[in-house]
Amino acid sequence: MIKTFVLDKNTVRDGKIDEIKTSKVVWVDIDRPQEKDFESVAEDTGIDKAEIKELLSPRQRPVVKDDTTYSIIVIHSPHLDPGKITTHPFVILVSKTRCNLITIHHRESLSVKRIYDYPMHRKLGVFKRGSTYVLFNVIDEIINTYFSVMADFDDKIAGIENTIFDVKRSNQIMKKLFTVKRSLIYFHKALLADRDVIYSMERENAKFIDRKYLEDFHELYVDITHLVEMNATYHDILTSMVEIHLSSVSNNLNVTMRKVTSWGALILVPSLIAGVFGMNFIKVPFLHSDYGFVLAIFLMIISVALLYLYFRKKDWM
Questions:
Q1: What is the pLDDT of residues 262-316, one digit of tens each?
Q2: Which of 50, 95, 192, 193 is the most buried (most CB within 10 A)?
Q3: What CATH number was assigned to the domain covering residues 2-249?
Q4: Where are the alpha helices (DSSP H) in 101-169?
Q5: Sign of the alpha-carbon dihedral angle for 161, 164, 168, 172
């Protein structure tokens, strides 16, 4: 789906992709591009269709490079899949000479949708400052989405913390821990790569970006550095939670073993007494006494009672 915004006098209106050839400030957003969309972008920008497709490949790393008339920027944008959070390539083509911006992505972007929903006065303020400032807002909204994702991670971690000592659900807890931890590792890689891209733009490595707005990109660099630090903190918290949960499971196993050992001892001692009196020898003390049976039962009761009191004092039962 292609959506085009055009700055026309004192309004930002819907337009057509062909208007990127004009001198107006134009933003073309292509969501889930089809073959005809790649052909249209290739024709209007002069960038090879195969190269555009390759930029959207899941293997594509974030990068900044220049073509003949466009600066090509690829960053990783977060996407909330059902049950998990992933990142995907987000391609941005920016031209200072033509004052236009093209964004291409395979997944629906919440970041782009928020810009769609800007009130008109805010859209005017962004578009009147040119394509570079539109670029700034697009990346800024992507970073805001990262912050929303981090808040979601925070909620997930808080939920796991509430069950961290529930050893009966150990498998479920460990699965949740490693799922969140794996997502954080992927996000850490994506954030570091995106930070390098923003640093490259800030250092004027994209020649079709308007230099007068480069200082604004430092704010993005600071924000994404903060995200990297948050990600590292959450990763450390999860690592500690894994250790705490494993320690809890180990302690619970020790408690269980003590209880099993205690009950085993309570059963063993009466069995030992019964075994002694049941040995097939002639001269067993009290074997032929009228009180032999009572004595054996008495010894069993006394031994079990003493052992029980001892284990209770040691908190083994």
A1: 888 888 888 887 887 777 776 777 767 767 778 788 888 888 888 888 877 777 7
A2: 95
A3: 3.30.460.20
A4: 110-116, 120-127, 131-161
A5: positive
Q: Which two tokens stand for residue 259?
A: 């209880």
From residue 124, give the alpha-carbon distance in Å to each of 24, 119, 129, 227, 315.
13, 9, 9, 29, 73
Amino acid letter for position 31? D
Q: What are phi and psi of 8, to 5 degrees?
A: -130, 100
Residue among 190, 287, 285, 289 at smallest CA distance from 231: 190
| C-alpha–C-alpha distance, residues 134 and 28, integer Å | 11
Kindly list the domain boundaries of the chain, sorted by start residue: 2-249
> Distance (Å, rounded) from C-alpha 212 to C-alpha 159?
45
Collapsing DSSP states into helix, strand and coil, what is residue 246? helix
What are the backbone dihedrals phi and psi of residue 230, each rounded to the nearest 5 degrees, phi first? -60, -45
Contact by Cβ (8 Å): 55, 93: no
Cβ atoms of 301 and 308 within 8 Å: the answer is no
Cβ distance 25 to 19 under 8 Å? no
Containing H/E element for 222?
helix 214-277
Q: What are phi and psi of 93, to 5 degrees?
A: -115, 120
Distance of CA 6 to the CA centre of its chain: 36
Q: Which residue has the tokens 């700055």?
A: 7
> Which pLDDT band holds residue 81 (cuts at 50, 70, 90)?
low
pTM over 0.85: no
Relative orientation angle of helices 214-277 and 131-161, to the nearest 10 degrees: 10
Contacts of 188 (CB under 8 A, 6+ apart): 228, 231, 232, 235
Contact 32, 106 (CB under 8 A): yes
**Cβ atoms of 90 and 77 closer than 8 Å:** yes
